[in-house]
């Protein structure tokens, strides 16, 4: 078992990474203080792992209940969140009840937000079962739900007590979801660590082939890099925004197609190709680097071409992005491989990238 | 103008108290950083004060929009909160948009919670226009909404940039609402400052008669005491819970009758009589002190007798109180006038207080 510590002062927490951790009672024990536990999961993950998790928790002698949500980004809204609140109130959950998020990013985001809001804050533990959630949503404390007018528009910064990333669960992932997770792994290398990007480039086939050693390394390195960025800037005042590389375009794709049509990681994969293109147009990145990025994203079986939503719709969708301020959209671009830069960009350049990247 | 500082480190903020502050541009100016402002108010307060507030803000040169919510505790739920989110998204509010809560406690709690959650946190200013919200909900950062199974069950601790308490607005309050606010003033004296309770006892008629000098003193002293308690214990780990004196019974009354039937302050007024009775039964308070408390609450035109919900229903409602833990309800009792104590109480004593306090 490997442990990455996310250093956030009195909100610091460990990420444990390794095979079979879901069965490891000792891994959970130090992080559960109250007398009851509510496991939050979804209809897909529940039959795979809920019983194993309950067995691992049983020796702790706590009251354990489970709430099962519908599966999918399209359910990441208030009504589903309210199922968690209904459950907690019916179970008489108190201020020390620990919520355990068992599932992917959607379950993690909603459980974390429910934990942030229930009685103004109860403890929670993340047990991410997808690559995307192990490398991305498990670090940084971003929680929330979607609004019809924007993704993750309603939420909170709220840190878990611990993240327990069982890499064995990744074997149950459909290839499309594995690829979506690889998008965030690639992103992490691109924005902050050129050596890690080189390593990804050399191991992309092993990663897509679900090689466990390669996956453990990728999860660990991604979490370490992200933890470093988040520790510097917990509430996204500045640096942390670089983690949104590929997300401005990506969010527009997701919102434009309707959430759930493309997976988040697929939209980010394509969004990174677009952001790399924009970086070249701005003179920050050279053509061969963009080509390497495109080839790695392609090898991860992620989409390279954006859906044709129309230029006006893209511009409109991007202007409500959370990074926008007083109507001006800021982009995260690559200032060479392994280095990100946040900057405003002339509209004409954005339009050129949209024209070059869109499937017609 | 009097200023009380709430000392919460990097979340510290001032409470400005005085007549006519709603028209005072300079009072607002230092606390608004972004380029837009969203005023959140309700159908009752909007015609009274919204235009004056907009006139005061106009010289700041910001984009100003207003969202008007239905008035009343019965609307303090997700659907109304979502009206704020809809408005913010339609207005393209960004991460620096300042929300201004113009109204009483319900508007303040919902606006604060909306500010806590919109894009995971935007700045907000409270302009409380009721006595209850000036002395109570404006200090301490408690925000939230009700759930059908419990009051304020969904929320966040989130501090405003500033509170601007215009005491002239109290003249527009219906007497019943003024009385409800006096309940929290009385509570503050009872739990933390016997001298202040003596002062309240001597000035209760002036306060109920809306004497401005008396009201200013009461708001200032209440905010100072509450700010001291909250600064010691921002997230209600211990001491802060004493601010809930009268609230365990009070919340049960509100929930049992249906929110909105009794005003919050009315329920707290009656709840304090009940908690004083329980304090006597526990040997913590003497009979004459209980009598003084009852007389002051009566002089504030607050109810002294609890509605007859039935003993079982009271016990049931109190067991989901946020102060409950592992099913055991804790009570805040008076250990003499001006001093509170948090303690478990034998069921028989609680039943005796219910029997003695209920209207049959």
Please give a structural write-up:
Two copies of one chain form a homodimer. Chain A is α/β, with parallel strands linked by helices and 360 residues long. The first copy, chain A, folds into two domains: 2-172, Rossmann fold (3-Layer(aba) Sandwich), CATH 3.40.50; 175-357, Dehydroquinate synthase-like, alpha domain, CATH 1.20.1090. In chain A, 46% of the residues lie in helices and 18% in strands. The first copy, chain A, is built from 13 helices and eleven strands. Chain A has helices spanning 25-28, 46-57, 78-90, 105-117, 131-137, 175-192, 194-208, 212-232, 247-257, 264-281, 287-299, 311-319, 347-357; strands at 2-6, 13-18, 36-42, 63-69, 98-103, 124-128, 142-147, 150-157, 162-166, 330-334, 340-344. In chain A, helix 9 (247-257) packs across helix 10. The model of chain A has no long low-confidence stretch (mean pLDDT 93). At the A-B interface, helix 3, strand 7 and strand 8 of A face helix 3, strand 7 and strand 8 of B.
